[in-house]
Design brief:
Structural class: mainly beta
CATH superfamily of one domain: YVTN repeat-like/Quinoprotein amine dehydrogenase
Number of strands: 28
Shape: globular
Distance between the termini: 38 Å
Oligomer: single chain
Strand content: 35-45%
Number of helices: 3
Largest sheet: 4 strands, antiparallel
Helix content: under 10%
Amino acid sequence: MNLELLNPFENEFPEVIEDCLEDGYACCCSPNRRGTLLAVGCLDGRVVIWDFDTRGIARVLKGHSHPISSVSWSRDGRKLLSASSDWTVKLWDVLSGNVDQTLQLESAALFCQIHPRDPNQYVVLPVMERPLLGNWKTGERTVLPHHTEEQKQDTKKQKMHVSAVSFNKKGDKIYTGDAKGFITIIDTKTLEIEHSFRVSGGSTIKSIQFSKSGKDFLLNSADRTLRAYDVDTLQHREFQDAVNKIQWKQCCFSCDGDFIIGGSAQKAEHNIYIWNRAFGRLVKILEGPKEGILDLVWHPLRPIIASISTSGVVYIWATNYTENWSAFAPDFTELQENEEYEEREDEFDIAEDEDDQGPGKKRKRVDEPGEVDIMTIDKVTAYSSGEEDELWFIPIVFDDASLPAPSPQAAAAYEGEGVAVPAPAPQ
């Protein structure tokens, strides 16, 4: 995917279902930071990693025995964290497909997330318990504090169940939400509560999502309302379906933060609502098959949405592409229907320039060779940190014994160039 070749005038939000990804029963999904890989957690405990460009399976991670409830990528895309209802959380090496670490819990895990900057840190939300902040390198695990006004008055309520948790964009703060509508902001290093407030209505906080810039966060509450907050001022704007008053299954920001999407929790409809965040206006309702929504995410860089239906299928929503052949000849006009054209008598005659001394001089001047710079790499503005070492794609390793092994000359040619060379098959 070359971002420089994308149409800058295409629609800012998707319109139609472009493709479907089917392999098992999907439960949750998450793209890596570049949007080149999509991790899908399945009902049978597998984690299927799809190549988002080729729409093929790049890797299958097997290790859980129960459904996957959450998946999370590290910043460099080399590690993947998966939480399951089998009471375990596993850290995977994406390139090798092996399990690096396993965390055994006392209950099923609802949510997991890797620290945005440090792949060794993570946060896990078990069922009916407070979230845990852990470190794979040191082995430390700490229960996060969560205090509200009611808990300060009654110490017996210290076990109020946290329903949502998330790192902020930099990872220096942790946001938690509970069943009473309280949001608690915790410092990641000191684990001290910096601020706590209650959402209007006091309904259960179902999820917390941050924008790509980190300046806003989005709350999905059980009162059928989505609330977008400013991180600094905590001023918010509410989004809801004023007509049907439906519940929301999942919500998130667009890649540029200009739009907010919410997936309907109705079991018999696959509707995705898109609002303009600045004006609060509903701009589009995407209507899919007669199936409910389990999860949805917006592509990190492009106007693409991946949604999971209750049938376990991942639907890819994209803009409605229309062919424009006039781009190949800018001086031509694109016609909507056939028209009869009357040619001028001298329209296609070859007219030589009077300034040219010879008939082939002008053609020679146009065809003169020039220097082409193939060494300079232009920085893509969509990548905020393009110098980081990241895993963008998963190389294919042939394990078929009938395929010939690569020659030593081919292996030497590719050595050090970032291209995976398959090892010879065992005899």
